[in-house]
Write a structure and sequence with these properties.
Number of strands: 0
Radius of gyration: 17 Å
Shape: globular
Order of helices and strands: HHHHHHHHH
Oligomer: single chain
Helix content: over 70%
Number of helices: 9
């Protein structure tokens, strides 16, 4: 990338590849690592305490709640596991970790928005919420 590319009025756009099962595993591993690293299990409460999703009246409200949960989770992961997230994000946009370090300032926000907009991540969070709800109901019996 030349210096003129960096100061051009035309932004360089980085599109994520299609999310796969491997990404689901990566995201699950990142969540586990964050809980282990911080010793803070409140991250899991994002899913356990997601009454806004359960109480959503319309499918549109439910989807908005799931998107908010996903954004909150990804932001927490970025705060704690910056290097691990950079590795995953670089893979998603098909660049090396070294190239990722030279991406535009707001690249993480762009990638988070693309991830959250994907059907695959919505399905992932919906599944996690359903499992969490099932486990909570079993615990009440």
């Amino acid at each position: 990338m030349s210096e003129t590319d960096l100061i051009s009025d035309i932004p360089v756009e980085y599109k994520i590849r299609k999310l796969t099962r491997r990404d689901r595993k990566t995201l699950s591993d990142l969540i586990k690592k964050m809980v282990k690293t911080t010793g803070d299990k409140t991250l899991l409460s994002i899913f356990n305490g997601s009454k806004s999703v359960e109480e959503a009246i319309s499918e549109e409200d439910k989807n908005a709640s799931i998107i908010n949960l996903g954004i909150e989770l990804l932001n927490r992961l970025l705060e704690v596991l910056d290097n691990d997230m950079a590795d995953w994000f670089s893979d998603l946009i098909r660049v090396t970790p070294e190239e990722f370090e030279n991406c535009p300032f707001g690249i993480e926000a762009d990638i988070v928005n693309q991830i959250i907009s994907s059907k695959e991540i919505s399905d992932f969070f919906s599944s996690v919420l359903q499992v969490s709800k099932t486990i909570k109901n079993i615990g009440k019996q």
